Amino acid sequence: MPRCLKFGAMSMRTVPPYIYVGAGGFLGAMLRYAMTLMLQGLHINIPYGTLVANTAGCLLIGVVVGLSEDIPFLSAEARLFLATGVCGGFTTLSSLIYELLQMVRVGHYLIASLYFFLTFSGAAIAFMAGVGVVRVFIRG
Residue 25: how many CB atoms within 10 A of its CB? Predict the structure, then answer.
């Protein structure tokens, strides 16, 4: 297995870091939109698209952290692309807050509380799972 995953032959000196972040952000936003379209029919009081995006984004960033903890398996470019770019474009904390406030505004306090709990507990569990998967399967 390679010691370090890199994107292309160029180094950070020839490609500005914001290019990696922007490309990852574009990909993350497109993935988020596609997922929202796929899950639209499941919107029964809880916005599943946002819930899944935040949980999956935390899983991905957990994998990125797991791959970068002790041995730099991912290059700086790959970390910028995946963590800052893809996860930043894919996860939707601002949408979460807006949706929570809309639920509270119409008096759906129990649903808002459930959504809040599921989002943050799911995100924490997914992050830990991402780190754990890397430790077990990649690092051995």
Answer: 19
How many angstroms separate the Cα of 121 from the Cα of each of 67, 133, 134?
Answer: 22, 18, 20
Domain spans of the chain?
17-138
> Count of residues for the chain?
140
Rounded-to-integer distance, Cα 79 and Cα 88, Å: 12
| Tens digit of each residue's pLDDT, the chain (140 residues) | 344 445 555 454 689 999 999 999 999 999 999 988 888 777 677 788 888 888 998 999 888 888 887 777 888 899 899 989 999 999 978 778 888 998 999 999 999 999 999 999 999 999 999 999 999 988 77
